[in-house]
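Recall that a protein's primary structure is simply its ordered list of amino acids. Everything else, from secondary elements to tertiary packing, is in principle encoded there. The following example makes that idea concrete.
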Amino acid sequence: MKTLKESFKDKFLVGAAVNAETIENDQELLKKHFNSITAENEMKPMHMQPEQGNFTFDVADKMLQFAEDNGMELRGHTLVWHNQMPKWFFEDENGNDVSRDELLRRMKAHIDAVVTRYKGRIHAWDVVNEAVEDRGEQVYRQSKWIDIIGEDFIDYAFKYAHEADPDALLFYNDYNESHPNKREKIYQLVKGLLDRGVPIHGVGLQAHWNLYDPSYENIEAAIKRYSELGLQLHVTEMDVSVFEFGDERTDVKEPTKEMLHLQAERYERFFDLFTKYQEHLTSVTFWGISDAYTWLNDFPVKGRKNWPFVLDEKGEPKPAYHRIVK
């Protein structure tokens, strides 16, 4: 039976999110099925620069070494986010907000240090993550970046990243990317960057989906809409939860036959769509390797396990796997 990367080798990269544990424990599965990896958390600012000027590169270095040793790409994730930012980033020594100029200086210093270290070795970066508001008319999510710098913090982040590595592909990355209202906001944000000549090369669709939502129509409409920007598209954090959003059951100890069947159907349709748009879509990354570990265990419902991938807890193919490699 074909592996994941063999099945899509002329179409797009197939990636997996890894962390400090899984990169050690799941090496064989990674080598077998994937040709791209992304650090789940270890390259976020909180982990990379926990204290001002004190960078901790060891885990990221190790991940990149593993990728290079095995002919894989590594997607850098992420440079600027409202979440998992160390507190010092936005504050002076008295705990007050820093000035706009100072925050831009700190942003540039962080991006310079991280991107320059891996220059020419990391093929794509999620430069700005989740800057769009989910609901209502408001485009930008409330954050310290917006409060202190203003909306143009996004322009600066991309410019700084491009200066640090002119050859890296630079992405804007977000979730709920297929919901029509948010889709249009993301489209307008990225179009604005392009109109202003900001160096951006792609849109990341996180694809945290489930058995029922979003609809195929909305996903295809989103892929189509973003492809009109003329940029590359990456599916960056894919998982297909077996629970509907709002389903808070904790008594399900293993996935039911129906769940596995529905999940297989969903994955098949998703990969049919990805293949249909392969001229725009150049990478598909699962937000994990197998059902042995997923961030969806305990989230958003405490004490609940989830089974969102195409490989089961033993790393064996599930019905969804057979459907997508067929």
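The radius of gyration is 19 Å. The chain has a mean pLDDT of 96.
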